[in-house]
Amino acid sequence: MATEFKKTRQGYADGLIELGATHPDLVVLDADVAKATQTYQFEAEYPDRFFNCGVQEQNLLCAAAGLALEGFLPFAATFGVFATCRAGDQLRNAIAYPKLNVKVGVTHCGISTGGDGASHQANEDIAIARVMPNMTVLVPGDYEEARLATIAAADFEGPMYLRFGRDTYPVVPEIHGAFEIGAVKPLRDGDDLTIITTGIMVSEGLAAADTLAEDGYDVRVLHMPTVKPLDEEAVVAAARETQGIVTAEEHSIFGGLGEAVTGVVAEHHPCRVMRVGVNDVFGESGHAQELLDKYGLRARDIVAAARRILDEAPVSTP
Questions:
Q1: What pLDDT does 37 receive?
Q2: In sequence order, which residues have a C-beta less than 8 Å from that of residue 66 and are 6 or more positions away?
Q3: Residue 198 contacts residue 172 (beta carbons within 8 Å)
Q4: Same structural domain for residues 120 and 189?
Q5: Looking at residue 254, what is its pLDDT?
Q6: Per-residue confidence (pLDDT) for residue 1, from 0 to 100
Q7: What is the pLDDT, as a whole number, of residue 312?
Q8: Side-chain half-sphere of 75: how many Cα atoms within 13 Å?
Q9: Are 227 and 278 part of one and the same domain?
């Protein structure tokens, strides 16, 4: 069966439209990129509950904060790089610090933003959002999980950062079903190695596990749609029960899933961890799929990292 591809940002828009019917207090704000974030579809259904704040991302987040203080449930939409880098002060001081019930739903994240180049490719946004106290960070893996994550966000009290992409990505039926904030999704069982993915890297992680299985390895695959709070219990179990961990994310290797996992492992059960992600470089313009190839965000790159662990001689102890 051919793999189906859909946009995660469309899952966000469809989730918002569903919520509009059941949450009369829900409002959507955008920074003049509604066609790109897909929130124009919510505007078409609920024009009185949609606010275009213009190309003023700082004001967008402050307006969302004000609406939350007045009892509304605001979802603020823009590109990931603008919400975290341009409006980082407002994200921190107007939303995270007072612990307001604002959902910042951002699109065009990661290297697969494509032709817009480095200025628009948010490869550091998880790190920025994750380090802020009170902030919950969700990174769904496909269209359906994006829709479910959006719906789950509405019933969660507190600041939240929801991360979506621009391109079309594989639909992964294994990650569908109930969405529990903070919970891992176990996709494969195994005791040789663990692959932990977040976001769109879930399909690549599964493909990598299949490749390694052909070589006789039993590989555990864990999908982490919640990067903060991380499911530490699942991470520690993987560290104890397998030879090592490979993390995979469409984000810098600094500050995101890889470092979150490494921190947990270092504190509770040290083991070898290899991080697959964007390697401390800015991106460039190009087609999304070509950029995923060039920057090492494919199953083959996960396999290469896994083999570095699996082929490593055991460390002798005195």
A1: 98
A2: none
A3: no
A4: no
A5: 98
A6: 55
A7: 83
A8: 35
A9: yes
Cα-Cα-Cα-Cα dihedral of 285, 291, 294, 299, to 10°? 170
* 40 plus 127 within the same structural domain: yes
Rounded to whole angstroms, the Cα distance separating 303 from 317 reads: 28
- Residue 130: count other Cβ atoms within 10 Å of its Cβ: 20
Residue 248 lies in a domain: yes
How far is residue 90's CA from residue 141's CA, in Å, rounded to a whole number?
27
C-alpha pair distances (Å), 67 with each of 45, 62, 74, 102, 130? 20, 9, 7, 9, 23
3-state class (DSSP) for residue 38: coil
Q: Which of 4, 18, 57, 145 is catalytic?
A: 57
Is the bond preceding 225 in cis, omega lying within 30 degrees of 0? no
How far, in Å, are 120, 293, 307 from residue 168 at the CA level?
Answer: 17, 15, 29
62 with 116, same domain: the answer is: yes
- What is the C-alpha to C-alpha distance for residues 177 and 145, in angstroms, rounded to an integer? 8
Do 104 and 242 lie in a common domain?
Answer: no
Q: Are residues 264 and 294 in the same domain?
A: yes
Determine, yes or no, domain membership for 15: yes
What is the pairing mode between strands 26-30 and 50-52?
parallel
Catalogue the E-assigned strands of the chain: 5-7, 26-30, 50-52, 73-79, 103-107, 136-138, 160-163, 168-170, 185-188, 193-197, 219-223, 226-228, 244-252, 272-278
Q: Note whether 71 and 100 are within 8 A (CB).
A: no
Q: Report whether 214 contacts 91 (CB < 8 A).
A: no
DSSP-derived pairing of the beta strands 160-163 and 136-138: parallel
Low-confidence ranges of the chain (pLDDT < 50): 313, 315-318
> CA 67, CA 54: separation in Å to the nearest integer?
17
Active site residue 57: yes
Domain of residue 61 covers: 5-170
pLDDT of residue 119: 96
Q: Total structural domains in the chain? A: 2
For residue 318, being part of any structural domain is answered with no
